[in-house]
Amino acid sequence: MARSVTVKFNNKSYNATYNEATDEYEVELTAPITGGIYNAQISCVDAETTNTTDIDIRILKQEQIKITTDDTYMYIFDYKDFSVKDVVELSNYEINIDEETNANTTVNVLKKTTAKANDIVMIKENADIKYWGIIQEIQNENGSKLYQYTIKYITNMFNQNVILNQNIVTTNEIEEGYYRIHSKLNYDFVFDVLNASLEAGANLQIYESNNTMAQKFRISKRPDGTYKIVNINSGMAVDVQGAVFENGTNVQVWTDTDNQAQKWIFTKRDYNSYSIYSAGTNQVIDLKEGNITNGGNLQIWEYTEGDQKLWILEKLDEEIIRYQGIEDYIAEQINKNFINNEDTLMNREYLEVRVKTHTKLNVSVSTIVDVQNDIYNLHTFMTNCTQNYNITYNVFLENKKLIIEIENKEIKKELIDVNAQPISNYTEVFETDVVSKVVVITKDGSRYTLYLKTDRTTTENMLDENRAEGKTEVVYAENIEDAKQKALDTFKGNAYNHNVTFDYYDREIKVGTPITIKTKESLIYDTYISAVTKQKGSKFYKYTCGNIRISFIDKLKKERKK
After folding, report:
1. I need a surface site. Which of 99, 407, 444, 558 has the fewest CB within 10 A?
2. How far apart are CA 554 and CA 548, in angstroms?
3. Which CATH class is domain 167-315?
4. Cα–Cα nearest to 202, from 192, 210, 212
5. What angle do CA 415, 419, 420 make, to 5 degrees?
6. Residues whose CB falls within 8 Å of the CB of residue 393, separated by 6 or more in sequence, listed in order
7. Do the domains at 72-158 and 167-315 have one common CATH topology?
8. Average pLDDT, whole number, for the chain?
9. Between helices 378-389 and 326-334, what is the axis angle to 10°?
């Protein structure tokens, strides 16, 4: 019989104890925190010999014990620098996240804080983050101890009008992106590939701006610091013909070979104009003889002062939607207006935007949101992207940064069966109270008419086949210049309701998540979660589905045609 048995396990040694009843040696080992396969070395020593053997022991991952309480806390962050201003316990709250109606969330606080409008709040229940929002107002009646906070969902931090076009570059460094390149001599004339040719060797000229693909270029930076300029229509790169770096050599487009003839350097000359050097030379792109007419030829020439050698860069952010993705376009607008704004006072350095998917769409911004005089509301655009393209915005903390993660969740559609899952209070309400035509009368008797379309954009075309069914509203504006805005404001009062709502027990689904819902009548709807409501103390989440509302208006339109 062995005199002793020892076990070496996870860098510790254990002595086994002999059990006379079983005639076996027994030992209790301490399991490591992390699960996995671990080696144990067993040594058996008697008077004369030592025998050693190795065995593998599988350690299962320890189950985490979650301690739940009824405590709910609201963290208040300063909107300027994201510093924590206060942490308060909530007596009660009702969270509303609704990307269609932009509903308010209300919370009651039994404490005066230093919070103010636009500050950011995070509501945490049982150590889980339930909500991110922006404070709209704080009310306190008659000096009571109760303070009521009105809050909107976090995406409202982007509720700002932004400029669609007229993005003239003024920075020293040129960002990668899509551009029109205008002549300093006459802004109406731009780089243009002759006859919109797709062939290598096509001439590069100037031509009046006409918004064609022959006049749009992608500028990207190489690791060596030089740039290449590629026409987005043909994929051909701007090129010094024959790689002959002499005065008067023609500039053309050629297959993208990444050679020296296709390397360029931008040098800023004044507030918004640049000379474009052929890298490694003193030659720049030059408008031959300053000929500012359609077909004016481009060549390289040694740099001297003169507007015929200067160019203005117009950044074309809309092209990002077509060639990179609508998520990338949203990220670009957030970065440009809220993170890397040239007015540094407006920047929120604690924000970081991440793009997880890239949905390329052949659409313009004006097909998604109303654009007036090249101005549109970014938040409205973002929420319309949720409704129409399943674009979602996930918000979380990481390394003291507020991360906005943009993703198309179309491929992650969830099935909701109201008969088989823990769902209650399922209701389906059809209702349309829609003004689909607004006539604006002005002081001088002028009239302006605007029509609603089924995708909730507008048109001035009475014969548009996508017009929505509804009633006519006649309103008054002082001046004809204000008529369109008056009409748009009237449309904003519309109520679109094909509401499918249900309560789901202890199941959190993010706003924007696409779902297929099977109703009690076994009807199937492809829709998405447009709103979530959660009350303190309740394990039920109340969900509202979107898209069905839009489809219902479309059905009315089709019924009218029949």
Report:
1. 444
2. 10
3. mainly beta
4. 192
5. 65
6. 154, 155, 382, 386, 404, 405, 406, 512
7. no
8. 86
9. 160
Q: If pLDDT is split at 50, 70 and 90, which confidence band does 356 have?
A: very high
CA angle in degrees (0–180, nearest 5) for 414-419-422 = 75
Q: Is the dihedral of CA 81, 82, 87, 89 positive or negative?
A: positive
Give the span between the Cα atoms of 498 and 495, in whole angstroms: 10
Average pLDDT over residues 400-426: 83
Q: Select from 551, 533, 423 the least CA-distant residue to 93.
A: 533
SS3 at position 274: strand
Domain segments of the chain as ranges: 4-59, 72-158, 167-315, 319-409, 411-561
Which of 230, 512, 227, 502 is CA-nearest to residue 391? 512
Distance, CA of 107 to CA of 90 (rounded, Å) = 7
CB 273 within 8 A of CB 168: no
Go through the chain and tell me how many residues it has: 562
Q: What are 111-130's pLDDT values in tens digits?
A: 889 999 999 999 888 778 88
C-beta separation of 303 from 311 below 8 A: no
Pick the CATH number of 72-158 from 2.60.40, 1.10.287, 1.10.1200, 2.40.10: 2.40.10
Residue 32: how many other CB atoms lie within 10 Å: 14
pLDDT digit string, tens, across residues 427-473: 776 656 688 999 999 888 889 999 998 777 889 999 999 888 888 99
Distance of CA 63 to the CA centre of its chain: 36
What CA–CA distance (Å, rounded) separates 62 from 32? 9
- For residue 93, pLDDT over 80 is answered with no
113 beta partners: none
What pTM value is reported for the model?
Answer: 0.66
Cβ proximity of 426 and 420 under 8 Å? no
